[in-house]
Design brief:
4-stranded antiparallel sheet; alpha/beta; about 10% strand
Length: about 725
């Protein structure tokens, strides 16, 4: 669609394009004659969500825009929340119910009278506690929650009241001011007192709810950590008590020091024990060697009962001395035992000297020296045996101590690990609790929303939107109707203009005939256009007939359409008139069912012969023109130069196939304002099989403005503005 077509649509429907918007604007004027005035109040609230100080801020924290935007979204959602709006409505209703008479600062006369109608006196007495706003609000909540149908719920859901939740929510606008911490709220109402007080209730309601929501975020966390801290403390205390009881029951002061002392003592004892064994082994070897040297003397002495007894006594005394030394007995007791041992040694030496008479050994060693040496080794041997007995007893005691201390160590380690784990858990929970309390304190500090600009009482109403509504309705009506006409134009499937014929039908265009009905002939020279186009048709038909059969004296032209009402008869008569002026007679055959036929066509022109034939099934088998004429009728059919055969609509009537094949030219008449359908295509396809391509199209009932493509500038009266406009839009010059 180009600008010229668009301008034609506008000019063609200019009357309705003006009348319909005017009617719509008039309706708006009528229905908005009692449009109530609207008042507005505003407030600005500082939130601190973007740049506010936080306890947890160390000065290096970067601003997270996503987090800030999310926080503002949460705050705005809280303001718009249903329960917030409900709280505002309940407080507003309680304030109004407490009024005894209208108060311009709270509720005007109209609103007061309307409230009296909505709330009967008995309901008011049940809801209101005179002079007590808080108790009245509590009563309203109690009644609202008592059932699904009550006066309070009715007021909250009644679109005609100030307490309708939908109207309160829709009257509030909340926006963040640029990228600041400020939140701007706007509330509108048709009563200034209601507007002012509703805004104050709104600020109180959403501030309290926001603080509660933010506080509850950390309250549960703190409570959880406190419970977990108590559990961790109890577990740690229980583990420590188990360790204490374990030490008391097993007489452990410091296990690791005690174990270290036992290990060191046992190591020292083991060293002494092995040293003593070496001394015992050395003494045994020495005694054996000396006794071997002493031969019978030693046997004599060895078997001496007294010496044996003395040796036994000496061994016993040495055992006691060693035992006392190991177990750290009193020094006086050890000294007495040593004195006894010395006495026994002296006695043993004396007895040995008395019984041993030999002075030298067989190796020429002095007997006395050998005896002394033997006695010394015997004493050493017996002392060593005594000490070894004590060492062995002590070693066994240490084995028992080790068997007792070994499991105590693993148990003690397990208890200490348990204490360590419980202590770490306790410290971790304590750290979490501290962070949660820090976060809680930070949120409490940041939740204090501050009103920067308090809501003001609106003294003047907002400018009326009535003029804007009227203008908008006029513009909407114009655009809506224009869109309808444009859509109608775009969705029109009819051929409309000659330019669409060949692309749509696939047949060459013979010419077009303008629409005359409804055309003002004083403004448009439609007769001139029609005559000119018809002459073009005759010229082209004459040329086509000459080229098709130049030697023929009688040319058959078939005029048809796919359905009735396309204008075949009108075109056929016009063609007959034009052809009759060229040569001899013209025979015009038309069906009896043809409408709008001119019965006096033959009388007007003696060179025209007309005949109405009957539409019968036999037509399909006709072989010549005379088959259409009845036998009892005769006429001057000589000297016929052109035969115009009009065929009834292809859709519902039989067609003379033989005559169509004999036709020099077939002319398809198509109505420009009717849609070309698939059925039309099918009927034309069947006709083409017979006509063998000798078909051209006449487009009938074309709007005069659409004929410029084949005619040129349509002669009509135009204003200077229209001529200039058309030239500016790409039209032809005059």
């Amino acid at each position: 669609m180009n600008l010229i077509v668009f301008s034609r649509i506008v000019m063609k429907n200019a009357r309705w394009l003006v009348l319909f918007p005017v009617m719509l604007a008039g309706a708006v004027i009528f229905f908005t004659r009692d449009l109530p005035k609207e008042y507005e109040t505003q407030t600005t609230i500082y939130t601190g969500l973007a740049s506010g100080y936080s306890i947890t801020d160390d000065g290096n924290e970067r601003l997270d825009n996503f987090k800030v935007n999310n926080a503002f979204d949460n705050l705005i959602t809280t303001i718009k929340g249903r329960e917030t709006v409900e709280e505002v409505a309940i407080n507003l209703l309680a304030q109004h119910l407490l009024l005894k008479e209208p108060d311009p600062n709270i509720l005007g006369l109209k609103g007061f009278e309307k409230l009296q109608d909505l709330v009967p006196a008995e309901e008011r007495a049940r809801l209101v506690v005179d002079g007590n706003m808080r108790k009245t609000v509590a009563n309203l909540y109690a009644v609202k929650d008592s059932s699904n149908k009550n006066i309070v719920r009715y007021l909250l859901t009644n679109p005609g009241s100030y307490y309708f939740l939908g109207s309160i929510s829709g009257s509030v606008t909340v926006n963040r001011k640029n990228n600041s911490d400020m939140l701007e709220m706007t509330l509108k109402s048709n009563d200034p007192g209601v507007c002012w007080n509703a805004m104050k209730f709104y600020i109180e309601a959403f501030s309290a709810r926001y603080r509660g929501i933010k506080g509850s975020e950390t309250m549960n966390v703190v409570k959880y950590f406190e419970q977990q801290l108590q559990h961790a403390f109890n577990a740690l205390q229980g583990s420590e008590n188990k360790l204490r009881d374990f030490g008391v029951n097993n007489k452990i002061i410091n296990y690791y020091e005690q174990a270290k002392f036992v290990a060191e003592s046992k190591e020292d004892l083991s060293t002494d024990y092995y040293k003593e064994k070496m001394r015992l082994e050395a003494a045994q070897k020495a005694v054996a060697r000396i006794e071997e040297k002493m031969n019978n003397y030693s046997d004599f002495v060895g078997y001496n009962e007294e010496l044996v007894n003395l040796r036994q006594e000496l061994a016993n005394i040495n055992f006691k001395i060693t035992n006392a030394t190991v177990y750290k007995a009193k020094a006086d007791d050890i000294a007495d035992l040593k004195d006894q041992a010395e006495a026994i040694k002296i006695r043993l030496k004396e007895k040995a000297r008395d019984y041993y008479e030999f002075n030298n050994s067989i190796e020429w060693v002095p007997q006395e020296s050998l005896l002394n040496e033997w006695l010394s080794k015997i004493v050493e041997l017996e002392e060593s045996k005594g000490r070894l007995q004590v060492f062995e007893m002590r070693m066994k005691q240490y084995d028992g101590i080790y068997q007792e201390f070994a499991p105590l160590g693993s148990t003690l380690g397990r208890l200490e690990r348990e204490i360590a784990v419980n202590e770490k858990e306790y410290l971790s929970v304590l750290h979490g609790l501290n962070l949660a309390k820090l976060r809680q304190q930070s949120l409490e500090m940041s939740n204090n929303l501050k009103v920067v600009d308090n809501p003001y009482y609106p003294l003047q109403p907002l400018p009326s939107k009535r003029a804007l509504l009227i203008i908008a309705s006029f513009a909407a009506g114009f655009i809506l109707l224009l869109s309808y006409y444009i859509a109608k134009e775009l969705m029109n499937k009819s051929l409309r203009s000659p330019e669409k014929v060949e692309p749509t039908l696939g047949l060459p265009l013979l010419n077009a005939i303008p629409e005359k009905q409804g055309i003002n002939t004083k403004l448009i020279g439609i007769d001139e256009v029609a005559s000119s186009l018809m002459q073009q048709v005759v010229n082209e038909v004459f040329l086509d007939l000459k080229s098709a059969s130049p030697s023929s004296n009688n040319h058959l032209i078939t005029i048809f359409s796919t359905k009735n009402g396309e204008g075949k008869t009108f075109f056929a008569e016009e063609l007959v008139k034009k052809l009759s002026r060229i040569r001899n007679k013209v025979l015009y055959l038309y069906p009896e069912t043809s409408a709008n036929h001119t019965p006096n066509l033959s009388e007007e022109n003696p060179k025209v012969l007309t005949y109405a034939y009957r539409v019968v099934d036999q037509i399909i088998d006709y072989n010549g023109i005379m088959d259409f004429i009845q036998e009892n009728e005769a006429g001057p059919f000589e000297e016929i130069s052109y035969t115009i055969l009009e065929i009834p609509g292809l859709k519902t009537n039989p067609i003379p196939s033989n005559l169509i094949a004999q036709s020099a030219l077939s002319i398809l008449v198509v109505h420009a304002q009717k849609s070309w359908t698939s059925a039309d295509k099918f009927q034309l396809k069947n006709y083409q099989k017979i006509a063998e391509g000798k078909i051209k199209v006449i487009l009938n009932h074309v709007e005069p403005d659409l004929l410029e493509g084949i005619y040129g500038e349509i002669p009509k009266k135009r204003s200077v503005i229209r001529r200039k406009l058309k030239m500016a839009l790409g039209g032809q010059k005059y």
